[in-house]
């Protein structure tokens, strides 16, 4: 039987709670599909800082690189918020993404029929939304140099960062986005700030150039401020969105809310080769950590993306996706997606119900 090495990075806050649920789901699906998973759990983020003094220990990065896929919970928390930059949990996450060279971050936002009422948008606006944000993940202002702290001519402290994109970085993310759009509904919207920023001017020029390789995909361009507005005005106009690192970060959190909750949104981060990194788009949610309140479905769905995009195990991925829908059909909801009349449960119970659905031990609605 096929055997895969999976690195688990539970991280901080609700990270360990949601990873535990996703691990159980992977294990169960493996036994049903005749697959074997060897899990290796490694410290990352604040947990790693406390244990080893750095947010991404070398052993964690090398274990991740040597595995077939990496599943991350979340990192960060108040305790480490005032650490120096190189000792922040978030810096560890950026080092991990850079170390694995996962430049393409796929963040799908789909309004499930079961969760239309959980959206803060009107039913007729939210219903049927199915979009994919392709976020550039290893460049832009997150990594650009020069950066740092200094003083200006008045002796006042300044902090500065640089938005920078090279042609090869734009070209490769554009190709991933065109390929993604081609497999979806053939529409790609490139989001930038080309009316102001040079990095965006080059972005728009290169995306337009690459478009000639994909005559079957309909390309449009939109400024990011307008895109933020259009996402809540009429999200159904979007199929695939491609954008830079920071705009993708912000727009995907916004898109998540259309679907009902950030606790539902999964992601896959892929490079040209090597293991992919799979993680929910949400953070460590320190406000609800340790209270068994977290919605584990974003991480469970990230595990499904791991199976599909990371391992090519489509059938196993479909089992997990179907189980999530079945669990929602059976009325189970964590607090973030709860509406009156349904069954309010915690993270653990939600996980148990997903397992039952995977196992087919319950009649489908
Ligand atoms: P957050 O995503 O952690 O939380 C925002 C809000 O959404 C909170 O009210 C939280 O309770 C809620 N929420 C998030 N995930 C949820 C879930 N699964 N179920 C139910 N509710 C959920 O964002 P934040 O509060 O801005 O950041 C908290 C920490 O997480 C910070 O240290 C930040 O740097 C870090 N962070 C990490 C990642 C990551 O690990 N990939 C992503 C974003 C933020
Ligand atoms: C995310 C997070 C990270 C990001 C932070 C924690 C570094 O917000 O994964 O969306 O900005 O990419
Ligand atoms: Mn984010």
UniProtKB/TrEMBL annotation:
Residues annotated as domain Isopropylmalate dehydrogenase-like: 5-354
Enzyme class: oxidoreductase
Pathway: Amino-acid biosynthesis; L-leucine biosynthesis; L-leucine from 3-methyl-2-oxobutanoate: step 3/4
Cofactor note: Binds 1 Mg(2+) or Mn(2+) ion per subunit.
Source superkingdom: Eukaryota
EC number of this enzyme: 1.1.1.85
Cofactor(s) required, per the database record: Mg(2+); Mn(2+)
InterPro entries: IsoCit/isopropylmalate_DH_CS (IPR019818), IsoPropMal-DH-like_dom (IPR024084), Isopropylmalate_DH (IPR004429)
Gene Ontology MF terms in the entry: 3-isopropylmalate dehydrogenase activity; magnesium ion binding; NAD binding
Pfam families: Iso_dh
Keywords: Amino-acid biosynthesis, Branched-chain amino acid biosynthesis, Leucine biosynthesis, Magnesium, Manganese, Metal-binding, NAD, Oxidoreductase
Family that this chain belongs to: Belongs to the isocitrate and isopropylmalate dehydrogenases family.
Name of this protein: 3-isopropylmalate dehydrogenase
Source species of the chain: Handroanthus impetiginosus
């Amino acid at each position: 039987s096929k055997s895969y090495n999976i690195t688990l990075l539970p991280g901080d806050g609700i990270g360990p709670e949601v990873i535990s649920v996703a691990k159980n789901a992977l294990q169960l699906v493996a036994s049903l599909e005749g697959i074997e998973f060897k899990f290796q759990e490694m410290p990352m983020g604040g947990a790693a800082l406390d244990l080893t003094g750095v947010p991404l220990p070398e052993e964690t990065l090398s274990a991740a690189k040597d595995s077939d896929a990496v599943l991350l919970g979340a990192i960060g928390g108040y305790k480490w918020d005032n650490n120096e930059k190189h000792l922040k949990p978030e810096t560890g996450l950026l080092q991990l993404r850079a170390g694995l060279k996962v430049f393409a971050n796929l963040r799908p936002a789909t309004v499930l029929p079961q969760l239309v009422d959980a959206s803060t948008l009107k039913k007729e606006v939210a219903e049927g939304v199915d979009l994919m944000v392709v976020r550039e993940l290893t460049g832009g202002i997150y990594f650009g140099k020069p950066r740092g702290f200094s003083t200006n001519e008045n002796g006042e402290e300044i902090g500065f960062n640089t938005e920078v994109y090279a042609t090869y970085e734009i070209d490769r993310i554009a190709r991933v986005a065109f390929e993604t759009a081609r497999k979806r509904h053939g529409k790609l919207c490139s989001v930038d700030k080309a009316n102001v920023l040079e990095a965006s001017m080059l972005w728009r020029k290169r995306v337009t150039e690459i478009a000639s390789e994909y005559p079957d995909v309909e390309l449009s361009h939109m400024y990011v401020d307008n895109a933020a507005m259009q996402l809540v005005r009429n999200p159904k106009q979007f199929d695939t969105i491609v954008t830079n690192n920071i705009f993708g970060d912000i727009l995907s959190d916004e898109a998540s809310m259309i679907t009902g909750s950030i606790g539902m949104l999964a992601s896959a981060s892929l490079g040209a080769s090597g293991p992919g990194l799979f993680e929910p788009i949400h953070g460590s949610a320190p406000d609800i950590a340790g209270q068994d309140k977290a919605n584990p479905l974003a991480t469970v769905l990230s595990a499904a993306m791991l199976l599909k995009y990371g391992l090519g195990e489509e059938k196993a991925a479909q089992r997990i996706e179907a189980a999530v829908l079945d669990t929602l059909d059976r009325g189970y909801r964590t607090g973030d997606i709860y509406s009156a009349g349904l069954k309010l449960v915690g993270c653990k119970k939600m996980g148990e119900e997903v397992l039952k659905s995977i196992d087919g031990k319950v009649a489908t609605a």
